[in-house]
Amino acid sequence: xxxxxxxxxxxxxxxxxxxxxxxxxxxxxxxxxxxxxxxxxxxxxxxxxxxxxxxxxxxxxxxxxxxxxxxxxxxxxxxxxxxxxxxxxxxxxxxxxxxxxxxxxxxxxxxxxxxxxxxxxxxxxxxxxxxxxxxxxxxxxxxxxxxxxxxxxxxxxxxxxxxx
Length: 164
Ligand SMILES: Cc1cc2nc3c(=O)[nH]c(=O)nc-3n(C[C@H](O)[C@H](O)[C@H](O)COP(=O)(O)O)c2cc1C
What we know:
Elements: E1 12-16, E2 22-25, H1 27-33, H2 37-40, H3 55-66, E3 71-78, E4 84-95, E5 101-109, H4 113-130, H5 135-153, H6 157-163
Antiparallel strand pairs: 1-2, 1-5, 3-4, 4-5
Helix pairs in contact: 3-5, 4-5
Flavin mononucleotide binds next to β1, α3, β3 and β5.
């Protein structure tokens, strides 16, 4: 399956409800992922999840944004026809007037190939740690492997992302 790339000046945008169901996707999202708008609205965001993505990364991502913080992450996604594409995502929560989270918003740019090579090596390590485990147990193991790795390097995931 082929790798898809998108232009440096393009941004893939989507918004979700607090549970991760897609409520908005821009043209670039639909083109790169290969879906029509009606096929994604209301669906969980994991419809574009690539099986090579470690569960632990999503555990960290959700933990960060549920706490009301922004998160930067490299994510490998899968298009409708099975092609894959890397993104550097910036995900932010939106708060209602009562202070609760009412939606999440993700802006994604096309990452530099050198950064992708480095993050792909880390993700392969996390997948190996998760191998043979299912669902929450895999996420827990991958998450702890990632956190240990970052702890030893003395950086947060965001700092790690920007050092690539
Ligand atoms: C705003 C927002 C954007 C997201 N974007 C993606 C994405 O591009 N690709 C992806 O695989 N998961 C994305 N996720 C995470 C998914 O909700 C989901 O946690 C992930 O695909 C893993 O699926 P699973 O939780 O069923 O294992 C996003 C979540 C939010 C809140």
